[in-house]
Amino acid sequence: MKSKFYLLLITLLCLPTALHSQSDTGSSFVSTPSMYAIHSVKIDPMPVEKEFTRFSFSTHPLARPMLPDGWQMSDHVKNFHLQNTPNPSRVAFLGGLTLSTGLLINHQMRNAWWSGDRGPFHYREAFDYARNIDKLGHVYGGYLASFIFSRMTNWTGINESRSVWYGASLGLLFQLYIEVQDGYSKRWGFERWDAIGDLMGSALFVARYYFEPLQYFQMKFSYLPSERLDDRGGRSDAAWAENWIDDYEGHTYWVSFRAGQFAHDHFDAPGWMRFFNIAGGWSLGPMREHTEFYLGLDWNFEALPGRSWLLRRLWEGLDHIRFPAPAVRVRPDGVWYGIYI
After folding, report:
1. Sheet arrangement for strand 291-299
2. Which of these, 124, 139, 259, 316, has the minimum number of CB atoms within 10 Å of its CB?
3. How far, in Å, CA of 121 to CA of 84, rounded?
4. pLDDT in tens, 238-284
5. Residue 242 has what DSSP assignment?
6. In the structure, what pLDDT confidence band is assigned to residue 76 with cuts at 50, 70 and 90?
7. Which DSSP string corresponds to 61-109?
């Protein structure tokens, strides 16, 4: 008798709750998910209007895509639309500086390369000129010009992601302008492989920004005037240079590997090791009779302290030059240099 009374009491207590759940249409849950359910899904209430003719998208917005936990947007993509409002005064200043510098360079190049023998535009491929070390000069020139224009556009207020592309485009156009001017010189001509070198330099600058392993490598340049930098004096010897641009015996092009930075990032090496690089260089011997290869120590200026914008840009700029350091010539013979400039 007592058990029947308890059963009736439980039934009477549960009945209002059951009726309330059946009549409550404002609830946002159809049912409470079980603890054994794989997913717990929140379902919006069914619209009162169940006829399709009365269905409206305005009352049911489209679902937004859900991203997995831990997913992060790449900084290159996330920041592409940010800081894209150039400062007019800075744009005007850099525009005037670029124009005046371009005119100065054009004047120098016209006196050094394009004076006199002008003619119709033509092509020429000089694979025997300076043992093709000038092609490395075009790669380095395209890379350096892209870097300079990129930092200039970034300073005006354009974000870094876009300034990389603007810088590479402007750097390539600047290099191609020189190639086109060569095309009107009877002495030179437009060299397609030089233009390809310019393109490779600009492309390398963009690739280095997006592909992290390339950031452990840097193209550099060092120069010491050779004995051949003199007036030709009527001589036709191609080894005599008229200007420092043509003085390839004094040029050395380097590929510097940030060995200390790599060791610091991957093997927990001390922070001071970040300043040391290992570099390989390519130059010309006397009278351009052979090529020379070097292996030496180098400096990573981007590892120097300083967090201000000006200091960081200064260290970046200096890091494109290979400053004096010990080196050894490995071809054509072994020669140790306590300091190689």
Report:
1. 217-223, 251-257, 276-284, 291-299, 325-331, 335-340
2. 316
3. 39
4. 445 667 888 888 999 999 999 999 999 999 899 999 999 999 999 99
5. S
6. low
7. PPPPPPPPTT----HHHHTTTSSB---HHHHHHHHHHHHHHHHHHHHHH
| 2 occurs within a structural domain | no
CA 175/CA 203 separation, integer angstroms: 13
**Does 192 share its domain with 240?**
no
Contact present, 341 and 222 (Cβ < 8 Å): yes
The domain tally of the chain equals: 2
Q: Is residue 64 part of a domain?
A: no
Whether 75 maps to a domain, the answer reads: no
Q: What is the per-residue pLDDT for 202?
A: 97
Hey, what amino acid is at 185? S
Residues 200, 201, 205, 206: is their CA dihedral positive or negative?
A: negative
pLDDT band at 82 (very low <50, low <70, confident <90, very high): low
If one counts every other C-beta atom within 10 angstroms of the C-beta of residue 282, the result is 17
**Are 304 and 235 within one domain?**
yes
| CB distance 219 to 204 below 8 Å | yes
Of the candidates 155, 181, 210, which is a domain's last residue? Answer: 210
Residues 235 and 248 in one domain: yes
Is residue 324, in this structure, part of any structural domain at all? yes
Domain range for 164 is 121-210
β-strand pairing of 325-331 with 335-340: antiparallel
Extract the tokens encoding 234.
Answer: 């009527």
- Return the closest-CA partner of residue 63 out of 33, 39, 34, 42: 42
List the one residue out of 241, 222, 246 whose CA is nearest residue 231.
241
Helix intervals (H) in 156-230: 160-183, 192-210
Which residue has 């993509």 as its token pair? 77
302 or 235: whose pLDDT is higher? 302
Residue pair 279/321 in contact (Cβ under 8 Å)? The answer is no
Residues 6+ apart with CB under 8 A from 161: 76, 77, 79, 80
